[in-house]
Amino acid sequence: MTSIVNVGLGARSYDIHIGNGLIDQSAQLLGAMLGSRRPIIITDTHVAQAQLPRLQRALGGDSHALILPAGETTKSWQYLEQLTDELLDLGVERGDKLIALGGGVIGDLVGFAASIVKRGCGFIQVPTSLLAMVDSSVGGKTAINVRAGKNLIGSFHQPAMVMIDPSVLDTLPDRQMRAGYAEIVKYGLINDAHFFEWCESHAKQVLARNPEALTTAIAHSVRTKADIVAADERETKDQRALLNLGHTFGHALEADTGFSETLFHGEAVAAGMALAFGYSAASGRCAADAAVRVRAHLEAIGLPASLSAAHVKGTGTDLVAHMLHDKKMAGGTLPFILAQGIGQSYVDRTVQLAEIAKFLDGSRG
Question: 41 partner at 20 to 30 Å CA-CA among 176, 277, 280, 305?
Fold first, then answer.
């Protein structure tokens, strides 16, 4: 069964198709968008082995595949330059729709390249990781990482379509599934306590790839994000900012661990959410039992919920220094997504970074 979620953005609106086996129907779903042009698929070395042949068979005819190295380091100036040069060598036109087949790294990089090649061409997201399915493939945020931090160079560029086929997750490593699950449970912690309760009861089924539980989790996450993006596309209000729950802490943890496989993005978000709730409780913003409950759930499914579990060695001062490069800094102030309880997250602009550093030093364990 296929479900369709629309992201309502006027002329930039698009559909998200969700259903097992959709990749095998790519010719029917994508044909009108691709037209008579030779499809250009951008992917990475891991996905090329697991999913690229399937997509190429489904599209039929001739397609061109550009294969980049797997891993976070591919979101860089070096590979952006390589990709854009290769696209221009292939004669890409403004009316073309590039196909981003991969996880968040490929989706972010291809989306950014599409936004700048010939002042903008189209692209289609075909996410192959759970994290990309429920978060990065939806909403039009595209970026690369630079020396100063994560996702600091980028653009808003909405895809023409998102095609989510949960069957591709059969080949996804369990650790990557857990990392993606962090972005699912985030939606419950932001504004839906009932969904968090559902997650507490169904997380093991989701991670075991139970089709019903997995599709339910993906569809709920996508609908929630689509509604938020439609209301606040460019994060000029506080609505879309709530999607950053765990990310201000999490990006600092990723920086401390060198944006490496020591700590996947979803794992950093999990630890970041535990820290956000921990700080909220420690500062009297929410009840202590809420923070305990969040940490217990994350730990129960094997996600890091502390600095030590995330393999972070930096001091509180070190981590705050990373936060100073956060793209959300405005007027010298960094807003934090904190919580008054489960499902009651909010934007707080009163937090002093010295308090955060002290909290982080005291929370190690």
Answer: 176
